[in-house]
Design brief:
The chain is α/β, with parallel strands linked by helices. Helix content is 48%, strand content 14%. The strands form two sheets. A five-stranded parallel β-sheet has the order 2-3-1-4-7, sandwiched between helices. Strands 5-6 form a two-stranded antiparallel sheet. Helix 3 packs across helix 5 and helix 5 packs parallel to helix 6. The N terminus is likely disordered.
Length: 227
């Protein structure tokens, strides 16, 4: 079973003073990055940057993408290793990787070899109807990646990006039918991953209906555990 912690339990935990080596499943990591000074390493961003820069790994990735193939787990792990060697004493958080057991095992082997093993895997659990409501109301400024929600983070002018004044887009697949398909695929992939990290003893789950409910618990967890 998942380990769910409450605020009183979290606040009673002693600080360990260890660096953050974290993976978050289930939600964005913006607040954590801003408050704790954590460097977020997004596998997608790293991949796109290497392709744009024409690195050896980027060219290999480009060939795979151009031929309609998936970029190999080994190549993604190597790209992440290249990022981590520049952050030996820093706090970091992985975003978007691993996505399956094979990737998790390859990642663990690489992290162990660099003495930077994961020390926290956090699973953020939000009711499915709440996630659906967010998705249906989600609008994106594609060039920057800025995301708006009509209820809790609306643009100042309807349909317009606050910064550039350019139009926002609503993804065609942000609808209930597509959501249910994506959710089924997510569970099929993520449940074994949760079991994997639960067995290693680093998984903690937090549940709530909104980020404003979950974040205080996550904040207290990190505040108690990390410098």
């Amino acid at each position: 079973n998942a380990q769910f912690l409450t605020l009183p339990q979290l606040r009673s935990r002693p600080r360990s003073g260890i660096p953050v080596r974290m993976l978050i499943l289930g939600a964005p990591s913006t607040r954590i990055r801003e408050h704790f000074g954590v460097t977020a390493i997004s596998s997608g961003d790293v991949l796109r940057r290497n392709i744009a820069q024409g690195t050896d790994a980027g060219m290999l990735a480009q060939r795979a993408v151009s031929s309609g193939e998936l970029v190999s787990d080994e190549l993604v792990v190597e790209l992440i290793r290249n990022e981590l060697v520049t952050l030996p004493q820093s706090n970091w958080l992985l975003d978007g990787f691993p996505r399956n057991i094979a990737q998790a095992q390859a990642l663990d082997a690489m992290l162990a070899s660099t003495n930077q093993s994961l020390n926290a895997v956090v699973n953020l659990v939000v009711p499915e109807d709440v996630i659906l409501h967010r998705i249906v109301e989600r609008y994106v400024h594609v060039p920057s990646g800025r995301v708006y929600n009509l209820t809790y983070n609306p643009p100042k002018v309807s349909g317009i990006d606050d910064v550039t004044g350019e139009p926002l887009e609503h993804r065609p697949d942000d609808n209930p039918e597509s959501f249910r398909r994506r959710l089924q695929q997510y569970h099929e992939v993520t449940e074994p991953l949760l079991d994997y990290y639960r067995r290693t003893g680093v998984l903690t789950s937090f549940a709530g209906t909104t980020s404003d409910v979950i974040y205080p618990m996550l904040h207290a967890y990190m505040d108690a555990r990390f410098d």
